[in-house]
């Protein structure tokens, strides 16, 4: 049965794909935007959909740090997919500039939903809330990142605290039916050029910006699978009250670069791995490198068995997801 779904932060990389997939299957989508003018950008990203589908897409202006607009956003919707959250690659001057919007915004959205009688919510969290300071092999949904772990950035803490805040609201309002999706680094083919920070990791490899690669493994997932997981959560009652790792596997920068080089042989793509002492030196001048130093050389594994079992997700291989992003970047 077709439903009306609110997608927060609909200009985001993940959110646009979710909106497309919801519209394609017949649902009505209302998206929140900080600036109403960006609605045209979202509509343009829905290329390939028939005019009838676009008639089921609308927007409401609402900001995570402001109460205005949220009551209107919730009116008449059947469920909320809360995807909106800041994602910087560089360290902010004040970490609360990231943490506050993530935490307060999550609470604001959930409370607005509860007040409007909208009980079904799917929250986009992150593997950042699962993988830091954790020794489990493989990692599962039972694992939570330690916010005091050396590898925790302000962004990581924002995801930990925002997800915790969501579960806390649900504890206070047991009628709320929450599912949490924890994606890794989201790759795959973007809907448009407005890709945000996650695609920048692959863009850095494709651009040949660095002569060597870090000895770093990342949990990678295709954006198509992230979208499918969110939508499947709405369809499967057994997902209520659960969180789901949404990543195919941990893959090294070297393996991603090797796959991308095969797909784009004309590109100068680094293949050698940088020694850690060199990365430490570069980290003094490059904030992006400094953020990853605590994870250099660490080998991690994960289990996505729950997402496969409950949500029916067959994950795109991590190297293929990275190649899809690289091909998009090269073509644009």
TrEMBL record:
It comes from Thioclava dalianensis. Residues 5-244 form the NAD-dependent epimerase/dehydratase domain. Belongs to the NAD(P)-dependent epimerase/dehydratase family. Dihydroflavonol-4-reductase subfamily. Keywords: Oxidoreductase. This is Dihydrokaempferol 4-reductase. The lineage of its organism: Bacteria, Pseudomonadati, Pseudomonadota, Alphaproteobacteria, Rhodobacterales. The keyword Oxidoreductase applies. It holds the Pfam family Epimerase. It comes from the Bacteria.
């Amino acid at each position: 049965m077709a439903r009306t779904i609110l997608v927060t932060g609909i200009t985001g990389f993940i959110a646009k794909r979710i909106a497309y997939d919801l519209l394609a299957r017949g649902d009505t989508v209302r998206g929140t935007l900080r600036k109403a003018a960006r609605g045209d950008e979202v509509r343009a990203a829905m290329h390939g959909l028939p005019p009838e589908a676009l008639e089921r897409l609308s927007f409401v202006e609402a900001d995570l740090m402001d109460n205005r607009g949220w009551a209107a956003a919730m009116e008449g919707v059947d469920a909320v997919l809360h995807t909106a959250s800041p994602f910087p690659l560089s360290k902010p001057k004040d970490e609360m500039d990231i943490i506050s919007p993530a935490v307060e915004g999550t609470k604001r959205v959930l409370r607005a939903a509860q007040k409007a009688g909208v009980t079904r919510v799917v929250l986009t969290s992150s593997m950042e809330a699962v993988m830091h300071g954790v020794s489990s092999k493989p990692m599962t949904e039972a694992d939570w990142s330690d916010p005091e772990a050396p590898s925790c950035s302000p962004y990581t803490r924002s995801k930990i605290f925002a997800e915790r805040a969501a579960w806390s609201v649900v504890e206070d309002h047991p009628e709320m039916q929450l599912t949490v999706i924890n994606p890794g680094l989201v790759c795959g083919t973007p809907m448009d050029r407005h890709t945000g920070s996650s695609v920048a990791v692959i863009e850095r490899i494709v651009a040949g910006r660095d002569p060597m690669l870090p000895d770093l493994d990342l949990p990678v997932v295709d954006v198509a699978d992230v979208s499918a997981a969110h939508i499947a959560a709405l369809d499967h009652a057994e997902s209520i009250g659960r969180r789901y790792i949404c990543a195919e596997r941990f893959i090294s920068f070297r393996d991603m670069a090797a796959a991308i080089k095969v797909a784009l042989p004309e590109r100068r793509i680094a293949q050698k791995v940088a020694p850690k002492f060199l990365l430490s030196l570069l980290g003094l001048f490059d904030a992006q490198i400094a953020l990853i130093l605590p994870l250099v050389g660490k080998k991690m594994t994960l289990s996505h068995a729950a997402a496969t079992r409950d949500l029916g997700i067959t994950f795109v291989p991590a190297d293929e997801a990275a190649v899809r992003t690289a091909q998009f970047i090269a073509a644009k």
